[in-house]
Design a protein that fits this description.
The protein is α/β, with parallel strands linked by helices. It has 2 domains: about 210 residues, TIM Barrel; about 55 residues, no CATH class. Helices cover about 40% and strands about 15% of the residues. It has a 7-stranded mixed beta sheet with strand order 1-2-3-4-5-6-7. A two-stranded antiparallel ribbon has the order 8-9. The longest helix is centred in the middle third of the chain and has 27 residues. The mean pLDDT is about 95. Bound molecules: adenosine monophosphate, fe (iii) ion (2 copies) and zinc ion. The site of one fe (iii) ion has 4 residues, from loops.
Length: about 280
């Protein structure tokens, strides 16, 4: 069994890179990809440890992109570097994206302060490491009694429909695909069920358009997918010639009830053959 979608505390997970490698080895996973949001910091730290134990660690990333179609979709894209490490210019691009996040965070702090919330950016930044995201804001709001749970914090303050929401303009999907391809990475559509397209024909059309834009794979196995989702996306992958990937989307304590490798109550099972298929893909 393998897991190709995990987060460390360098983005919005709670495990250190070392703890994540230890947990993967304890589970006897045959391979693990670290796919933090917008940073390789967790992967970079985990790599020496993985090498020491001869553990198959894959360099990955998750990025939020904007796709303009009949409505604007926020598309999460996984990126895998299977054949060569990410080049310097790609890492430099990630620094720009992190700067865009800092800008959003400053706007969000202003909005919250205007709403009478006692909160400072440095308090929120203390909660995370390389990246400060909305889950870190949620933690502070819960700790200070402004919200009962993270879910509640998103509903009242941080979510897209909350009055204090501050938007972050991630890169355009097509542009991001081009950057990833130019850097030698494989762009993969993450958890397609979260596109929220109920009609299977429209969903297939959107995914076909993404394939035409250069998307190379689709995350067939994911902890948010039920059995029918997995079957539908596997058929679509075969039909469109997309590589198949899969993972739990493990975030440690930030996603309670979700286990590394196996998802929610064993609803994710990614066989080793998925990685073999991926490595043969160009
Ligand atoms: P950001 O990338 O900083 O905009 O934060 C997005 C992250 O917040 C997502 O990756 C989720 O992990 C988390 N998130 C989004 N909506 C919710 C919600 N309603 N409840 C809890 N966590 C959420
Ligand atoms: Fe996340
Ligand atoms: Fe995601
Ligand atoms: Zn994720």
């Amino acid at each position: 069994m393998i897991d190709l979608h995990t987060h460390t505390y360098e983005s919005d997970g709670t495990y250190s890179p070392a703890e994540l490698i230890e947990a993967a080895r304890a589970l006897r996973l045959e391979a693990l990809a670290i796919t933090d949001h917008d940073t390789f910091a967790g992967y970079d730290q985990a790599l020496p440890l993985a090498r020491e134990h001869n553990f198959d660690l894959i360099c990955g990333l998750e990025m939020n992109t904007r796709h303009e179609s009949h409505r604007v979709f926020s598309i999460h894209m996984l990126v895998y570097f299977l054949h060569q490490p990410p080049p310097a210019e790609f890492r430099a691009w990630l620094e720009e994206i992190l700067e865009g996040r800092r800008d959003r965070n400053r706007r969000l702090i202003r909005n919250l302060q205007e709403a009478g919330v006692d909160i400072e950016l440095h308090e929120v930044e203390k909660m995370g490491r390389t990246l400060t995201g909305r889950p870190h804001f949620a933690k502070v709001l819960v700790n200070k009694g402004y919200a009962a749970t993270a879910e509640d914090a998103f509903r009242r303050y941080l979510g897209e429909n909350a009055p204090h929401y501050a938007e972050r303009h991630g890169p355009d999907t097509t542009y991001a695909i081009e950057r990833v391809r130019a850097a030698g990475g494989l762009p993969v559509l993450a958890h397609p069920v979260r596109l929220g397209v109920a009609d299977p024909q429209r969903e297939a059309k959107l995914i076909g358009d993404l394939r035409d834009a250069g998307m190379g794979g689709i995350e067939v196995h994911h902890s948010d997918h039920d059995k029918e989702d997995v079957e539908r996306y596997a058929r679509l992958a075969a039909k469109l010639g997309l590589a198949v990937t899969g993972g739990s989307d493990f975030h440690g304590a930030a996603k309670p009830g979700l286990s590394l490798g196996t998802g929610y109550g064993g609803n994710v099972q990614v066989p080793r053959s998925v990685l073999d298929g991926l490595r043969s893909f160009r």
